[in-house]
């Protein structure tokens, strides 16, 4: 018998939604990998308590119960696979795969049994339906009645939102069956109740998605985002991944929390929670727990009193509570030394981070693409300009992501990164040795080492070594570690438009790519005169009236000197901020005074524009008439000039013949001086004829005679 069994296109039921994935059964246990999220469920063989085979809507299903009460359901099996699965369970798990059919009598009266995470409604020994208690969002009681409310399923067109159970009264004293029913449900339900005090609170954090400033309250089982308009409660069980990403300016940090299912606001779904921090912000944090509780709960990962950068404290607390590793950028380094690439996605500019196991784009909309779901990537020429290129990613599900407007200097770095990760590149084909070495059932978050932990250790060492150094010195040190001259050889070969400057020692691909930029340079050269054509349209008339200023700008111009005198040495930016505060605090009556002045200025501007437009129209008409008149005169002069030219030519030839007949000289007696003087006289006569006014009709008649 085979040691493993693998099944494709198996569906796992999680919170009412069916997630597609792959299932593998081995001696060690059962592994299911979700195709959509990449999340892996690993059930050890020693934890399995029961296996049930039954007929379901999608064919046949397998229900697994563990010793700690968890239930896993997998659908999509064929009936013929029962014997193979039954033998495998007997041989490797020492379990009997029981067949249990659901009751289809249609009765609405039965017995409720609570087992682990399931509520089972049975008629006799056969179950009618089962409700995973983790789907329950609220449980309320009434007289002889219990109402269960469920989480909304976004993937389904129709969702079950409420079920009511009638509980008959019993004769037992001291036990209320309705309360007992509700307590059994609430003990396993996914009901978020903000009972007790928060472990810690982070005030006024800047959040990019959803946008705004939020207070984050950390509770033992969930995260509470409290804003001015909206509140969100996020259970830690819905957190898939944590990312800590440095901004390209090296002064800010992104902290990204990936969620499944997402948080909802109306029809909007937020799959990512993105926080933005400044590296300069520090905080001293005290947990609302005693030291023994902190040590018992977090096992040294957190302490009661902590201090450091704000982003470090938030990421450290989240890592300890969610119990997931923090993903940071790997070894990739762009042309400018940053660990990200500036690009555009769906008409919004953002940053693309190549990670060790995928790509993530922040921030609008956020996108996370794992390497194991990528079919191929493609480098395409930019559609709008030759100084950039597009990076396209197509997944195995057929979804295509296009990241455009990437600077061409980043091409060499990104190409080397994709090549090193053995991703398929379109039009190059699958070369030998380029097959992806990813385990299809490995979790995309499982790394052999904790990159975040290593980075924190390195930063700690740098702080200790440079404790006495200034911040300027440390900045110079980090900048000097990037040497563009050594790392950008490929970029020069790929995109250098000067063929002589590029290296001639390369393979056929580089030679072929060297020829392409020459065409690009030619295109840019041809396009330059086109940009200069509409200069006359863009130029503004200096005589045109100036636009009127707003009420605020009028007040600011009048009050600028006063603000400077009240705050000597104030900078321009601080002056603008101060002026905004003063304007905001100004009374309504004073603002109305400046509004009236702005309205008067607007009227004057409109009046001046009307006069200007009338004058410009008259000028344009006069200009058109003068142009037409000038063209007409040029045509007349040209026609008369051609006529005069023919007349002068014929007259000159006749005079030459006449002169030759009057005084003939042999060729040997004509000196060079005489010939040159004759030629100069001839030229002078022609010039005089061209400059003289056209002859009258009488002259032309006599000349022809």
Automatic annotation (TrEMBL):
**MF term (GO), any:** histone binding
Regions recorded as binding DNA: 545-613
Q: Does the keyword RNA-binding apply?
A: yes
Stretches assigned to coiled coil: none
Q: Where is the composition biased (Acidic residues)?
A: 474-496
Keyword set, alphabetical order? Chromosome, DNA damage, DNA repair, DNA replication, DNA-binding, Nucleus, RNA-binding, Transcription, Transcription regulation
Q: Which InterPro entries match?
A: HMG_box_dom, HMG_box_dom_sf, PH-like_dom_sf, RTT106/SPT16-like_middle_dom, RTT106/SSRP1_HistChap/FACT, SSRP1-like_PH1, SSRP1/POB3, SSRP1/POB3_N
Localisation: Nucleus, Nucleolus; Nucleus; Chromosome
A GO BP annotation? DNA replication
**CDD domains referenced in this protein's UniProt entry, alphabetically:** HMG-box_SSRP1-like, PH1_SSRP1-like, PH2_SSRP1-like
Bias (Basic residues) ranges: 517-531, 624-633
Gene3D superfamilies (alphabetical) = 2.30.29.150, High mobility group box domain, Pleckstrin-homology domain (PH domain)/Phosphotyrosine-binding domain (PTB), Structure-specific recognition protein (SSRP1)
The region called Disordered is annotated at 459-551, 609-705
Which residue windows does the record flag with biased composition (Low complexity)? 497-507, 647-663
Q: Which GO terms describe its cellular component?
A: FACT complex; nucleolus
Q: What does this protein do?
A: Component of the FACT complex, a general chromatin factor that acts to reorganize nucleosomes. The FACT complex is involved in multiple processes that require DNA as a template such as mRNA elongation, DNA replication and DNA repair. During transcription elongation the FACT complex acts as a histone chaperone that both destabilizes and restores nucleosomal structure.
Q: Which family does it belong to?
A: Belongs to the SSRP1 family.
PANTHER family hit by this protein: FACT COMPLEX SUBUNIT SSRP1
Q: What is this protein called?
A: FACT complex subunit SSRP1
